[in-house]
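#struct-help
A.M.: can someone run this one for me? Single chain, 107 residues.
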Amino acid sequence: MLGQVTEGESHLERATQLNPQDQQAWCGLAKALDMNGKREAADQALIRVIEIDPRSPIADTAREQRTRYAHQAFRERAGGVPRMDAVMYLLGAIQKFEEMSRTRSSR
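D.P.: on it. Structure tokens below:
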């Protein structure tokens, strides 16, 4: 919040060393790492959050953030090109719904 992300990162890293079971410290470290452009390290910290207690609300938050990372990485790798598997899936769905419409209207 104060713009001292690098300093915060080092303090949170120290906190995780002092108490490796502190989910909140790991989650804060993940946020600081992400803000410092260290996405892979942030993802590893989020994995640690989940490992500590997979059923906690903070683990749910960590999973959501990891999902956002995955979606963003997927979009970046696609380079703006449509994914053919998604195109074919949607085409199949459209064809199925068109077929359903014809079947229902002929009843």
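A.M.: thanks! The mean pLDDT is 88.
D.P.: also worth noting: The first helix runs from residue 5 to 18.
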